[in-house]
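Lab notebook, bench 4. Still working through the backlog of constructs that have no structural model yet. Next entry is a single chain of 360 residues. Request: give me the C-alpha cells for it.
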Amino acid sequence: MSDYVAEQIAALKDEDWAVREEAASTLGSLREARAVLPLVSLLRDPDRAVRQAAIGALTAIGEPAVMVLGACLSDPELSIQEAASSILAVIGDRRVLEPLVAALQSPDWIVRMHAAKALGRIGAAEAAQPLLPLLQDKVKAVREEAAQALALMGSAAVPLLLQALRHEDWLVRLHAVESLGKMKSPAAVEPLLYVLFNDRDAAVREDAIRALGEIGDSRAVEFLIMAMKEPGLRLLAVEALGRIGDARAVPALIEVVNGSSRPAVSRPLDGCGDRWDEEMVVMGAAVRALGLIRDDRALPILVAALQSTITRAEAAAALVRFGPAAVPYLLPVLAKEQDDNLRYHVKEALTQLGWRRGRT
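Model written out:
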C-alpha cells in the first residue's frame, strides 16, 4: 500500500492534467495523511478539474489536513483561502478556530461565507461576537451563513442576538430574528413579541411571527391571534398558530375557515386563470393549522370545509390527522354526497384512516 501511495503522490506532478486529477481522487479515497501537503500544493494547479479533485481529496482525508488548511487561510492568494475555507467548512475542527475567526474579515465574500459555516459547525461560544457583524454583510449568502452559525451556537449566542434586535440596520434585526427562531430559545419569546408589534420594518415583523411559530411557545398564542387582524400578517400568524399547536387558537381559526372573521378587504391574487384573493389562502392555512392542533371542536368545521373546492383537499388531509375520530364524521358525507370530486377526497381520507367498505 505504501508503494502505491507513493506512486499516486508522484503522479500529482504528471504533465497530463487527467493523470493528476485521477491521482488526487485516488489519494482522497485512500485517506492517506502523507498526501496532505502534495494535495495542498495542487490547490494552485492551473487546471480547474485538478483543483476540484484536490479539494475533494483533502475533504475526504479530513482531520490530518486541518492544520495545514488553517495556515492556508492567510495565504496571499484569495483562491487558496477560498479552497481552504470551503474544506474547513465541511470538517469543522476547533483547532483552527483562531484563523477561521480572522477569516471572517477577509475581503473575499466566499472566504467569509465558508468561515462562518465552519464556525457554526464547530459551535464555539467565543466565535459568536465576531460573527455578529456579518449579519449586515453586503452579501446575502454571508449574512445567511452567519445567522445559521449563530443559531447553531445555542444559548451562548442568545444575549448577543437579543441585543441585535435593537440594531439600527434592519438586516441585522432580520437575521437576528431568524437565528432566534432556528435555535428555538424560550428566552426570545417576549423580545420577539415586542418586535412583532413595534419594529418599523414589515419584513422584520413578518419574520418575528415565523420565529415565534418555530419556537412553539404558547405564550405567543394570544398575541398571534391579535396579529391575525393585520392583513399583511394574517397568513403568517395563522401558520404560526398551527405550529405552536395550542388549543386556545381553535376558535379564531374556525372563524377564519367559516368566513365569519373575513376582513373587509382582501387583496386579489391572479393565478391559473382563476380569481383568488389572499383570504382564500388564509382559509387553507387555517384548515391545515386545525389539523395540526387536532382539537375535536374542529371536526365539524373541517367536514363543512370539504364542500368548498378552495379548502377541500386541505380539509381532507387535516381530517386524516385526527385518526379514527374523524371516521364517523366522514362516513355520512360519503353516504349522501353525489359530487365525484368530493367523494374522491372523502374516500382517500377514509382509506388513509384504515377504513374499508363493509366495516363499521
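Notes after review: The radius of gyration is 28 Å. The mean pLDDT is 92. Flag for follow-up if needed.
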